[in-house]
Amino acid sequence: MARALTYPQATHLLRRAAARGRKQEAQQLVEMGLEAAVDHLLRDPAPAPIYTTAATRNERGQQHREISQLWLNHWLTTPTPAAERMVLFWHGHLTSEFRETMGAQGIDFWNQFATFRQLGYGPYGELLKAIARNPVMLLYLNNAQSRKEHPNQNWARELLELYTIGPGHYTEQDILEAARAFTGWTVRLPGNQRPREASANVAYEFFFNRNWHDTGEKTFLGKRIRSGEEVLEILIAHPKTYEFVGRKLLKFYLCPDPPEPLVQEGARVFRSSGTKEFLRWLFTHEAFYNPEYRNALIKSPLEYLVGLWYAAGVSRVDFEERPGRGLYQALAAMGQIPFDPPNVAGWDGGLAWLAESPFLTRLNVLAGFAGRERGLDLEVFMDNAGGALALVKPEAQLL
Amino acid sequence: MNRRDFIQKSLLTLALGQGAPSLLSRTALAAQSRDKILVVINLFGGNDQLNTLIPYRNELYYRLRPNIAIKREEVLDLGANGQKLGFHPELRPLMSMWNNGELAIIPQVGYPNPNRSHFISTSIWHTADPSRRQETGWLGRWGDLQDDPFCDTFLGGATPQAQMGERRSAPAISSIDAFSIRLPRQFEEAFNKEARLARSGTAEQVRQAMLSLKGALDKIGRLREVKNRAQYPDNAFGRSMGDIARMIAGGLGSSVYYTTLGGWDTHAGQPPRQAELLGYVAQATAAFRADMKAIGRDRDVMIMVFSEFGRQVAENASFGTDHGEGGLMLVLGGGVKGGLFGSEPDLEDLELNALKYQTDFRNVYATALNWIAANPKEVLGADFSPVALW
């Protein structure tokens, strides 16, 4: 028998899953019942628009604004907004920084997001394997330049520390050995075009440079291996990977400090069935609707703005024109520029979002919503909503 | 408002009453607090010591770094007191401080059982606890003992762990000029009303953040009229250093100011990147000291520069260096006793290609805590031997 979903539960579910919603959508979820509502939210991602640019390869600032705008507008209009919050999760986990990845173009970052969208709901191992060959990642963590003579350790270190098993389960020697195994994993432009001559619409592709690869035997986490693929297989088979990444998922979808039994249970689902099943497990779990977890998270700036715009019926923002340009700067001041996390560990989140200066920016953004009371539907955006003045309540900051 | 605040505010009003938007005049400042001030600059990413403080008479240095070593003829010679070491050319603005004995160079700083993760090592420096049991920051623990919510201030968007205490954390101010509320009156009134209504759970934490923000708006708003005289690098870090000078000049009253400059994680293409960043540090600190001199506070302010680790000795294949261990600290100011506190690194005695640490960073913290009249043992949990920097 289908389980019921109350209206307050539906607003909580919609806010957490998609960071975007209006009253009517919450009511539709209630009519569906819990399981069907969750199925509905977790439908396969609608494709994002194709990105092309008139900018040159050197005009990266413009490309960055273009893909940021394209993504936010997609999040505002897509029939599958939960997929875009999932993309945000992977972007904050398998990080790449636009400003630090000089060679990479807007198209390369847009393609990385397409990978998150395409594989993000599936088994984590598949996503990890794709990201290990993703040109933006190879450029960002310098593996693209790693050669057997002097392997670059950056990717190998973060792969272990941040992307899979987490600190405490490997040694410095394991990092060195993994770095050797990934030598030669690099990028090129199709047809060996030279970056100086190529259009900004030409994306990098993965390339295995045999001459740079260290073919010798390595010992990684106690096993004898040779290739980068074997490093990935060991990490994908490692239970700590699922505990570490699964805990991060719970922090993103449930509460800042998830209880250990849920972490363990979640890690098992995540390992055996992938991210979509993990989310289905969580969203249909009784604990998810526990009052203790309602409003337990703080909206990130992107979630705040997407939620707010959507509540106001805005379906398109334009960063090149006023007032959109100001909103792009506001995202920076609030501490969350799309495609550009502050460092390789992603965004800290939580109360750090509400330090004095970023919190002030969140409030100042509201000036744009004064006098737009009509058409402002805050039912899903926040609890205790009323008119526009409710936006200054603490609840407006909560997810 | 306490008495000290009141006096400062009155003086500030007097000084600003003349309408001249320049740094405060000496007369106003003469009566201002003579308290000592600590400015901490966190170079996030791991600054490479060997290309900052260069062992340019050591052949081995050039052999281990065939592509990225700083050329001998470009190195700034530190003279007899610098032993056989020299500065990166972009640090030229610091040379007069070195020559005047106002710049302390402390090489190979670290802690037992070094960790090469950015995040773990940064956390160790911030909590001052290599055993990683502490969750509060070293300055946060000091701040817990103070009454003034502005006893320390962070210049940036999110307060670092170093300034997180049990009871409070430092206010985070990205920019004095941008720090004003621009809402229709109704919204502002509603905000003030909501801030008075207690809640529970996360909503209550948000309300507390609203109260902190309200307090900060009052305090920072008064500083907008204070202007810098010196020229700072035109970037976020330069503006933060300029704002610290304005906060001090305007009598904000913090004993500690903290800011961050990132980008030091030079795994690839290190030389131009590090040069640019070192230039920012040198130019901004020189400008800052010029502003402090102009208001007669130069001898009261100690500037401490650190990074979570140094980098490995032999270069990698991408014209860069990977994460290392012992790193470089700089401490400078009009009241600082300069010199080289440590020795030339031994490039033949390495730990997995990294410099071994020689000085525990908590010894330098102890010096900094003494400077602001704090109790190092209370903050650091044990006795450390302060480095004699003043």
TrEMBL record, chain A:
Highest taxon of the lineage: Bacteria
InterPro entries hit by this protein: DUF1800
Protein name, entry field: DUF1800 domain-containing protein
Species name: Meiothermus hypogaeus
From TrEMBL, chain B:
Pfam families associated with the record: DUF1501
Domain of life, source organism: Bacteria
InterPro entries linked: DUF1501
Record's protein name: DUF1501 domain-containing protein
